[in-house]
Amino acid sequence: MNHLMTIDGFLMYLTSPEGSIFNPEWQGLFQDMSQPLAHYYISSSHNTYLMEDQLKGPSSVEAYIQALKRGCRCVEVDCWNGANGEPVVYHGHTFTSKILLKDVITTIANYAFKASEYPLIVSIENHCSIEQQEVMARYFRDILGDMLLTSTLDGGVASELPSPEALKRKILLKGKKIGNEPESFTGEVSDEDEAAEMNKDSLASESPPTDAKKSKQNLCKELSDLMFCKSVHFHSFEHSCTSAKPDEMSSFSESKARKYSKEAGSDFVLHNTRQLTRVYPSGMRTDSSNYCPLDMWNMGCQIVALNFQTAGMEMDLNDGLFTQNGRSGYVLKPEILRNRERLFDPEKPEEREDYHPLLFSVKVISGQQLPKVKQKEWSIVDPLVRVEIYGVPLDQAKQETKHIDNNGFNPCWNESLRFTIHTPELALVRFVVEDYDTASRNDFIGQYTLPFTCIQPGYRHVHLLSKDGMSIHPSSIYVQIKITEL
């Protein structure tokens, strides 16, 4: 026996998990899951009930099923008064269809831990009357049963939230909560919700400010008592530093979050070492488009909510980040975003103590069995490959190969692309294959996104995914990866 490998055997090896660009060591659950909740990125969905746009599309429990199967660990439920005393879920003041809250909670109970055993956060926008809030509280208690956790595990006042490990298979509700007011049955709370924020977003800049008057809403104690995380209005970073409790969470629209990241970078990073921060798309995104989540992750924001129903680069990045760590929906933030002593500024990565930029070289060699993008039998793709880097501002970059005429079966590029990576822990790499078109926009063929830290150097296969993140096996590209210190 010669112990030789045949051509077929060699090809099988190259396309096997050992030949993948994704280091198999990082695919399973490998991170420390015993740190406080605020130390993790959490895969999060916005207006989870919507299947399409934000104005007139259908609401459906199917949208919850899809998000939860995809590893989402924070879903949103907008509750409004419904007929016959039954609370409904829909996008308030729009023409989106309505579904029963009871059905949403039942679906969450059935699918919460199918993809991951780690805690599921349910973010509640509560617009209901006291009577229907009582119904809400009853449904949450009765349908979720033992899965529902309403207070920190030790019962005392903790300085940090519990860890994902301590909260396994638990559902945590986040919403408005009565403070320490003396009311016996109901409490008044300020209405600090997305609807108000969206109205501000859509106001013309010359309009007088409308946020001076906060509408008040009565809150039912039974529902308030079920909240694990309390929605609070954000006053300032100084205020949160001195006064905020670990279970208090503020939500920011993307524009507000971007403003804070520019004006108070390291203060925002410090805030996110202690508090959970939720970011959601601007009210102007009525088509359910998404913002780039990287800008928020760079600040250490944990709950960066995206419209899961909208395919594109933004959801590719979300899927890419959460591909690691057993697809559990939780990824431990890099040490630079957990350290309270040495604050990291994403705008100035070179100022960190352990600054070691890397040279990332990608030789794009060939493609295998790329799918046709036009249905006509005679159509053949003219493929090109683009490598995109997402991370701190200094790392944002894109380079692409030339296109190959009329060859989707086995195109060969043999082109080298080079990038400098200043903050490897925050970088994501996206490989995109497109069908070149001289007259119009290139057509999308496939993509694959993964964290830079999960890349396995050497000769590797990149298995392509569809626009919706599904495998389009056996389509792939073959690359050589080199990572060296500068």
UniProtKB/TrEMBL annotation:
InterPro entries: C2_dom (IPR000008), C2_domain_sf (IPR035892), PI-PLC_fam (IPR001192), PLC-delta1_cat (IPR028391), PLC-like_Pdiesterase_TIM-brl (IPR017946), PLC_EF-hand-like (IPR015359), PLipase_C_PInositol-sp_X_dom (IPR000909), PLipase_C_Pinositol-sp_Y (IPR001711). Its main location: cytoplasm. Residues 182-216 are annotated as: Disordered. Residues 226-338 form the PI-PLC Y-box domain. It comes from the Eukaryota. One of its GO terms (biological process) is lipid catabolic process. This is Phosphoinositide phospholipase C. It comes from Culter alburnus (Topmouth culter). The lineage of its organism: Eukaryota, Metazoa, Chordata, Craniata, Vertebrata.
